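tokens incoming
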């Protein structure tokens, strides 16, 4: 697989782009791939749009020492051009969670369901795998390249986070890579990363989520306030799914440009399919069986009443799609 990646790269420097608000899995994957490319004398720049400050991803990058560039920094230096070669990791072109930048996306390495059939020069997209970090880790073992301890530590943590400590969406590859990486990683760093980084502001978001919590059947919804960071929305979604008799959690935050959703399922529903269908025509979304995300634009919403109507409309759509999945499951059982 690694040979196929390297073979498609023509320049001596590439840009590894993650999704807009990269999580530990995205950062670990980019970091692991960057080292692999350096073994073939290919320089790489890990880049992203958005903000990861005060997140587990930021903490991981800081402790391990992972160098990343904001896209705005690259543009300020006029570093990107139409000739630039871009590798997407843990994301796919055209999805709402990744910005289109100057250059050509030549390679895509991801573990999410195929968003659109794009004409990459090479793609390695495995929706059955729980973490993109597992795919990158496999490149090392398949090619026989020694893995530095910081890389092993990052990849192991990426798998831990994206599979919720090996409890969701776990494939055989995730299990194999987890075992192999565990023997190579720095256990003390992993222990540091596993400690929380909640701030007072984060607790306030949890409080807002609890105060707004409402349910329809086995689905819970909550608006956690304005401009909540992506990682925090996801954390609160995981938290809400722990509630008794809740099988689907739909948590969202209002932004100036739209509503950002994080959806979690305990396996009763397919979160990715529900999110995609619920937001079809009014936004976009998708993901895995257990975790998904989405976005609805509200640029034409002028007041709170209109915004409330949008929220109610979206919630009704989620309930409808959940009902469709329940009915389909009952037919199969019969």
């Amino acid at each position: 697989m690694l040979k196929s990646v390297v073979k498609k790269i023509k320049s001596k420097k590439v840009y590894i782009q993650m999704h807009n608000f990269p999580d530990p899995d995205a950062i670990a994957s980019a970091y692991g791939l960057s080292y692999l490319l350096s073994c073939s004398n290919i320089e790489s720049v890990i880049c992203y749009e958005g903000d990861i400050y005060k997140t587990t991803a930021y903490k991981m990058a800081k402790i391990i020492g992972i160098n990343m560039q904001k896209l705005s920094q690259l543009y300020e230096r006029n570093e990107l051009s139409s000739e630039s070669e871009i590798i997407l990791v843990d994301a796919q072109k055209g999805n709402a969670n990744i910005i289109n930048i100057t250059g050509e996306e030549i390679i895509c390495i991801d573990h999410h369901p195929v968003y659109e059939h794009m004409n990459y020069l090479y793609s390695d997209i495995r929706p059955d795998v729980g973490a993109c970090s597992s795919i990158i880790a496999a490149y090392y073992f398949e090619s026989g390249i020694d893995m530095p301890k910081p890389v092993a530590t990052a990849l192991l943590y990426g798998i831990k986070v994206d599979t919720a400590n090996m409890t969701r969406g776990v494939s055989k590859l995730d299990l194999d890579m987890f075992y192999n990486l565990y023997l190579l990683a720095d256990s003390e760093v992993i222990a540091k990363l596993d400690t929380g980084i909640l701030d007072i502001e984060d607790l306030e978001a949890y409080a807002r989520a609890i105060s707004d919590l409402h349910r329809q059947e086995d689905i819970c919804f909550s608006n956690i306030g304005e401009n909540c960071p992506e990682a925090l929305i996801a954390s609160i979604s995981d938290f809400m799914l722990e509630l008794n008799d809740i099988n689907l959690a739909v948590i969202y935050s209002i932004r100036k440009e739209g509503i950002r959703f994080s959806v979690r399922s305990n396996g009763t529903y397919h979160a990715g399919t529900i999110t995609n269908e619920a937001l079809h025509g009014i936004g976009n979304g998708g993901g895995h069986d257990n975790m998904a995300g989405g976005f609805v634009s509200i640029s034409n919403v002028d007041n709170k009443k209109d915004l409330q109507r949008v929220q109610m409309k979206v919630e009704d759509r989620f309930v409808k799609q959940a009902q469709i999945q329940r009915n389909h499951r009952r037919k199969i059982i019969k």
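note: The chain has twelve helices and twelve strands.
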